[in-house]
Amino acid sequence: MTNAFLEPALVCAAAACSGRAIHVLLAWEAASCCADARLLGAWAFLVCRPSSGLPIPVLTSPVHDHAALGTPVIDGAFLLPVLDRFLKAIRDAPDLPKIVELHAVHRAGPMGKALQMACHALDIRVFHLDPRRRPCLDAAAPAVPMSRSRAKALRQKRRRLAEEGAVCLSQSTRPDDVAADLEAFLALEAAGWKGRGTRRGQAILRTPNLAAFFRAAVPALSASGLASISTLSVAGRPVALQLVLTSGRTAFTWKTAYDETRRACGPGLLLLEDVTASFQASRTLDLADSCNHRDDGYMAEFWSGRVDVGDAVFDVRPGRSPALCLVAGGALMQWRLKSLARALKARWLPRLRHIWLRAAKIGRAKAAGREMPVP
If we measure between CA atoms, which residue out of 247, 275, 306, 338 comes closest to residue 108? Predict the structure, then answer.
């Protein structure tokens, strides 16, 4: 079972740049971690407040806010025994919180099912929150035919972009090249709407610790062949970049940035089209995970596959503790409020915009009528 966000280079970078302690559980086949012991599983946790902000310490996975998968890495032949040992180790450790908050668990996958079975066997009550789906690409499946209108629109965008110069696609894999392209990625992201610090998100460069994390983690991952950056350039200047992590036979399209001054040419769409083609042509990949939080955005249009994702909160002790009820209740309330906000935005914002535009039109008409000379 793979998880690129549990790679040692990424976990070490998160620990160094966050300044907070990260606890790592390791399961070995032998009784002691000697030289000839075989590692069967790993799981990393951060001790912090829950996502609801309640003053209750919990164990959280993944260990970084920008990670997109919170499940452990375990040898597939030992899923249940290793999960059982992990949960018991947390329960028996005197210095660890007993409430666990997992984010982005593949609910229908082998790991999600095994976790549910392991918790059931230990009489652990699990609260499942924020069920959602996100796009994925089955690299072995036949390509989904694109509609004629979509294909025509992409060809037009590519021709429009080519009017500014030669359009080239490149991929950096060496640490030095990845580090250089990462700086181009950070600069391009900061030049867009995220650089203005909106509520929807902030550019990585706006937070020094976050920028340090990416500068430490990404080149280190590329040194092990686990990170690459694909770049779409025009006349030698990057207009879209995509940071991709790999773990086993799974790719994770972690981060994307594009030149917003060329939005009409769709550089992000064109880069995704090229990257998708490279995934489908690869013989080393079985799956590409979009890392999207939800089933939306342009990746949802390009990739027809879907993976069920959700969060989970549980106490490793049997039964239902008061602290668990508080943490799960706070997370549930937060999730429902966000869902309500999204529904109101989708339903009422267009109506309010229509009313505002109509009122503005009537106001302009009345103003023009008053200014007209009386015959």
Answer: 306
- Residue 254's contacts (CB-CB under 8 Å, 6 or more residues apart) are 4, 66, 68, 243, 244, 245, 291
Q: Please, where are the H alpha helices in 98-230?
A: 110-121, 148-162, 175-190, 208-223
List of residues 6+ apart from 232 with CB closer than 8 A: 167, 168, 169, 238, 239, 240, 241, 267, 270, 271, 274
Q: What is 162-180 written as a DSSP string?
A: HTTS-EEEEEE-SHHHHHH
Q: Is the pLDDT of residue 370 over 60?
A: no
Q: Confirm if 80 and 66 have CB atoms less than 8 A apart.
A: no
Rounded Cα distance, 203 and 255, in Å = 11
372 pLDDT higher than 50: no
pLDDT digits (tens, 9 = 90+) for 201-244: 689 999 999 999 999 999 999 999 999 999 999 999 999 999 99
DSSP assignment string, 9-34: HHHHHHHHHH-S-EEEEEEESSSS--
Q: What is the pLDDT of residues 94-107, one digit of tens each?
A: 999 999 999 999 98
Give backbone dihedrals phi and psi of 107, rounded to 5 degrees, phi first.
-65, -40
- Least Cα distance to 69 among 256, 328, 327, 309 occurs for 309
